[in-house]
Amino acid sequence: MSRSPITLSDFEIAEAPLGSTLASLDALTPGDWIPAVVPGGVHESLLAAGRIEHPYRNTNEKDIRWIEERDWWYRGSFAAPTDLSADERLRLSFLGLDTVVDIWLNGEKLGSHQNMFRPAVFDVTERLQAQNELLLRFAPPLAGLEVPASAAEMFARLGDVFAALAPEGDDLSGGGEGMGSEALPLSTLRRKATFSWGWDFGPRVPSVGIWRPVELSREKKAAITGHHVRTDTIDADGTAHVTLVVEVDGFHAEALSVEASVTTPSGITHELTIRVQGGRGEAVLALPHAELWWSHDLGEPALHNVRLQLFADRELVGEVRDRVGIRTIALDQPDDPEGGRLFRFLLNGVPVFARGAAWLPASMLVGSVAPETHRALVRTARDGGMNMLRIWGGGIYEQDAFYEACDEEGVLIWHDFMFACIDYPSELPELQAEVAAEAEYQVRRLRNRASLALWSGNNEVQLIHGFAYQNYEPGNWGWDFFYRILPETVAREDGRTPYWPGSPWGEAPEEGFMAANGVLDGDRHAWEVWHGFDFGAGGGDYASVGEARHYRRYAQDRGKFISEFGIHASPELGTLRRWIDDELLEVHSPTFDAHNKDNPKDKGDALLEIITGLPESIEQYVDFTMVSQAEGLKFGIEHYRRRQPHNNGALIWQFNDVWPGFSWSVVDHDGVPKAGYYFAKRAFAPILASFRLDGDELELWVSNSTAAEASVEALVTIAGFDGGGTQTHAVTATVAPARSQPVWRGPAPADGQFAWVSSPSGAFPDNRVYPREIKDTPFGDARLDHEIVDTGAGAAEITVTAHGHAYFVHIPSAVPGIRFSDNYLDLRDGTSVTIRVEGLPAGFDLDALEVAGYVGTPVRR
What we know:
Layout: E1 6-8, E2 11-16, E3 34-35, H1 42-48, E4 71-79, E5 88-94, E6 97-98, E7 100-105, E8 108-113, E9 120-123, E10 131-139, H2 149-165, H3 183-187, E11 197-199, E12 202-204, E13 209-210, E14 214-220, E15 223-234, E16 240-249, E17 256-263, E18 269-276, E19 280-287, E20 304-312, E21 315-324, E22 329-332, E23 344-347, E24 350-352, E25 354-359, H4 371-383, E26 388-391, H5 400-409, E27 412-416, H6 429-446, E28 452-456, H7 461-469, H8 479-493, E29 499-500, E30 524-525, H9 528-531, H10 545-549, E31 562-564, H11 573-579, H12 590-594, H13 605-611, H14 618-642, E32 649-652, H15 675-683, E33 687-694, E34 697-704, E35 710-720, E36 727-735, E37 739-747, E38 753-758, E39 767-769, E40 783-790, E41 796-803, E42 806-809, E43 819-820, E44 825-827, E45 832-838, E46 859-860
Parallel strand pairs: 25-26, 25-32, 26-27, 27-28, 28-29, 30-31, 40-46
Antiparallel strand pairs: 1-14, 2-3, 2-4, 4-10, 5-9, 5-14, 6-13, 7-8, 7-10, 11-12, 15-16, 16-19, 17-18, 17-20, 20-21, 22-23, 23-24, 33-34, 34-37, 35-36, 35-38, 38-39, 40-41, 41-45, 42-44, 43-45
Helix pairs in contact: 2-7, 4-5, 6-8, 14-15
């Protein structure tokens, strides 16, 4: 039987001038070589050796630019397996090389590789010696490239368009970062993460090195090269029909078969034999009363254990194990009575309102992110009510741990292919071959994931191409990728996961070229808010730039599925202090602005001026930007939820961060959720009660995104911040599944009043509306009392009581990794809340847990 692969991780690295050769290594001394972090990269290795300061701290990023301008050599040694028989082979697999690399084994060149998104695999059966030396030379990935003519022309056209659209001279091109980076056009010729060269949320710190494991596999007679466990149909009686496909390379065998077993979550095992001919075999299995995989909001994410044992000439030679979900997923686009077409996912035939966010790599240093980090982040998303994460096309295809966590937590994945924000020279034969090989590898790798809901061709390529050219005719801009190679690969290698040409994309003819981000068809990116001009949802005359960027513009959006929308916010002050020295941490200081990659650096000030007023201290900046984001996301999500069934998705830009900076994320780089996360968590509840102000009238809506009819009782309170003028209204309503409707109307709160809704049975979270901007809302004086109780095993409970109406009540994260059951709350006078705290480190002093309100709220214990 084949053995488990041997993992090779003992490497050293050394730098060399650009264009170095094997002979150049003779000039290196032992001190030039340092231990390599594998999986990881050059930056991580230099950090571990104390050769560089952390690029995320202060402005250190500018001091490590030299790293991307050198050659980097890796060397490692390993012993060959002994007693190899004539029917065995050895394969050396580099599962991730970042990015342009030449590889030598025992002084002979094995080959070259130029794609970080697919492995490099070599048969080394006849090449190994008793002791073996590997050498890898990583060259600067953009060296020697010339800007494709198609990208140059697009940038010239786009510059004119953005110059006309930019409010008050804003630099919409990115100001030399992200889309404005001189590296971006060159990067279209290399299959490397686009965000490597800097973006409007992160620095230019391009990773380099061995970023995924290196394995030596010993295989006997035959090997399983792929498998697919796909759910074909689910009958009305609950019987699921499942096809098991196995692909085999019988390199030294005549008769091949696979003994398969599928064990249900309740412990029932089904066994079957799969005959293999021509390298492929398949069999159909019927599972009565199937335990289906659901997103966590609709049911249980049930997973089945699959075992595939490969027999070659009746000898057991290999085994693959997997955990799969039995489910069907479809992209449904029927006509919408409101006009255009719906855009919604059907999971096991049930409509899903997608609630979630865009997922970014958890670090610029992609190779050294621990699996535990991915699992913790996915758990945070699930705990935040999110049922979908969208893997953004400027990042990476993630670690297995990410997909495993999404399967286990019941979180669907919208998966972009790795293309973003620029025309690609898609007519180049060599680039077509790389993209085809990459797509085939990734689709085959991920097709068994229960959480995989959609493959999307790219991020914003069509949108930006449309701005530049006003059409999407076939041409040398990515068309061959998004409309031929990628959909054909998904259909051939998967056949069950839907494919969509890009995000955003739509095809309503009456919207012209802006249909790509229109409101009648497909998905859209709602960037009217924050950027302040019309992206396809409609414009208007605004009194100021701040009004043009205000989150009230979400109320105009009639889109069918919002796959991006967001507002900038600071991380918590504790995160900033971990990465920026106190003496440098001032609003708009050079170091402060260096951690904000959006341009201009004060873009959010026009919005803050309206919502909170301009900050005068770092403490105010943190609170004010968090308020702006949190209130804006709440407003937007509630609007989109009220539009169900015409709208069926709200995905925030963005979920997480690539470094500790200022961005649109709701969870910062240290894993600390911002206020926007908690506001969104409540707005993402399966059943939501929300207010809509319409002039002098107030409406209460109930949105039911579950699979069952909801009968709810609600208590509406209109009250003054001073405690006077209280009115209460009892409301009952029945709302169909996947629907939203108004259930009560009354006069809008007067000046000095607010509206509050609660559920006596706990069917939905409490909610409220303030009729004026936060800076103009007369909250009055408030005081917070709190009591902390140790509940053991790294946990505690904090009970907070408000005296006066308290806004933005929260517990700062004393250290990263702490989890709160809720945070950033409003408390009415005389009310209390108990917040559960988990994940406290051993020996943690509970006195370090503090309670805070909006800037300046007195607290006592």
